[in-house]
Amino acid sequence: MELEVTCPGCGKQFYVEHDGKGGVVHCPFCNAALEIGELPMEATPSHPTRRPATLRHPPSHANLHIPHKTLPATEPPKPSASMVEMVLWLLLVGAGIGFGWWWLKNRPQSTETTPAAASAATQVAQARPPPPPPSAAPSPKPKVETPPPLRVETPLPPPLPPPLPAQQAAQQEMAPATPPAEARPPAPPQQQEMTPPQAPPQQEMAPPSPPAQQEVTPPEEQPPAAKLKEPVEVQLLSPGFDTSLDGWNILQTAGLVLPRTDAAHSGQRGLRVTDQSGERGTIVAYPFAGKPGDKFQCSFWARIVSGSGATVGFRFTNAQGQSTTQIVEIPAGTKDWKEFTVSATVPDLTKECEICIATTEAGKVVADFDDFQLRQIP
Q1: Domains in the chain: ranges and CATH
Q2: What is the pLDDT of residues 188-227, one digit of tens each?
Q3: N or C terminus: which one in the chain shows less Cβ crowding within 10 Å?
């Protein structure tokens, strides 16, 4: 009969065959050894009875063997006929596709022209523009035959007439008899007079003439420049900073130098200089042309928003980089717009003239500037 047993190790329930005698069984879940006691024959039920089991050995999870009943060994399934037919069909289809691809790649190209292709080629040929007519072949250049060089033949002098017999006899009588070549004594060798080589004529070296002294004419004294009778205004590119900083150069800055609408005295914008460093200072310069002795006057409007240490003036620099300045300082507390004027004379050996807006190195200031005007004064 079957007996329902509860494993005290894992708490799982399972059924075991019990013949009424006690014994030891193993839990199919945790492989724990369980001891089952004997049942009396008169109390043996015909249906499964739940009976508590006693844990004989602690469960061993290292060698867990869960299945309780062993299944009979079964043979592996044999492939059916439908599966074999499907594999064969797949092979045939793959072979057909491969052969078709090979034939399309290696088929011979036919050279026969179909009527449709011939008509299409005729239409394409008719649509093409006719070739340009061949240009006329250049006519061959005429050959210029050069005449052969002229030969000038000088006539030979006529031959002398042969001498008469009487003349030949007279010439023989007049000529002295010459002894035969063997009887004549050899002529002594002629001695050539050796003349000493003549020395080349010496050229008389004339003493070098002193260089001609060039007359140095003293430079003509230039007339002095005409003195100004009235002030002449010098045009500045951006005197009111309405569009940009045209002509003004920021040589040194320790803050911000910007044209702003809230810094305008007149027009659209004015220049605001902000320097809160207190160490370096800011310099904005406008160069202009001037020569030593010229006098200039600069007028402008300015105000102090906060702080102190804003200046405006002239700076003159020579070739050695040494500078001379003539400045005016904007007083601290100038909250309202005020017009200022500064004048200076260009010193000797000046190479560059500039109008400078500057802040002192120890100052912390926010100042507005506008409406600059430069004049050359007499």
Answers
A1: 2-55 (2.20.28), 232-377 (2.60.120.260)
A2: 555 555 555 565 555 556 555 655 555 555 555 545 556 6
A3: C
